[in-house]
UniProtKB/TrEMBL annotation:
GO terms for molecular function: DNA binding. The lineage of its organism: Bacteria, Pseudomonadati, Pseudomonadota, Alphaproteobacteria, Rhodobacterales. This is MmcQ/YjbR family DNA-binding protein. It holds the Pfam family YjbR. It comes from the Bacteria. SUPFAM superfamilies: YjbR-like. Gene3D superfamilies: 3.90.1150.30. It comes from Paracoccus broussonetiae. InterPro entries: YjbR-like_sf, YjbR/MT2646/Rv2570-like. Keywords: DNA-binding. The keyword Ribosomal protein does not apply.
Length: 113
């Protein structure tokens, strides 16, 4: 997996927007102004949201992911060389979690998914 493929997967999510809010080469993907995936400047991992801190702990414990620094315990960092289907699944899941958590008035203005 590469950073380019992660960006391609993120860009494919309806209404996804790219930004580099901290400067220096971060790839931060947002929906409705809220982050659903971020790759740091080192470009070795992509951080994504999970549905709970417990699931994140399980993914970390089983070696699927690592702790995502600077983010809530419900976020994990997946290595960019993870299985392609795992990366795609986790990115889509993070997107959906963040999107469905947006206020209804924001959701109404987004493209369907």
């Amino acid at each position: 997996m590469s950073r380019d493929l992660v960006n391609e997967l993120c860009a494919a999510q309806p209404g996804a927007e790219w930004s580099d809010p901290w400067g220096g080469g971060h790839d931060c993907w947002k929906i409705g102004g809220k982050t659903f995936a971020v790759t740091g400047t080192a470009g070795t991992h992509v951080a994504v949201k999970t549905e709970s801190a417990e699931l994140a702990a399980f993914l970390i414990e089983t070696g699927v992911a690592e702790h995502a620094p600077y983010l809530h315990r419900s976020w994990v960092a997946l290595p960019l060389d993870s299985a392609p289907d795992e990366l795609a699944h986790r990115i889509r899941h993070s997107y959906r979690l963040v999107r469905t958590g947006l206020p209804k008035k924001v959701q109404v203005g987004l493209p369907p998914f």
